[in-house]
Write a structure and sequence with these properties.
Layout lengths: L7 E7 L4 E6 L7 H7 L12 E2 L2 E2 L13 H10 L3
Antiparallel strand pairs: 1-2, 3-4
Amino acid sequence: GEFLAARAVHVLRRGDKTAWLEVVLDEGRNRHIRRLLAAFDLQVLRLVRVAIGGLLVGDLGKGQWRVLEVSDQQRLGAAAPG
């Protein structure tokens, strides 16, 4: 099998049958979070991306985009491996 890992997982909110988790990945592969949590017999009902490479998504809706500021480009360059 494939090795799946997360850099960090935090419980943000917990209910009787559900919980909100914050999962931090170094690299996301196809259905990575769903397969990772399935290994613990947990089902993912919804995924919300809040950041990419240190850039917060903010108010961007599905399919929306924005022009990167110079500071954003520098932050992405600093976060890139190698």
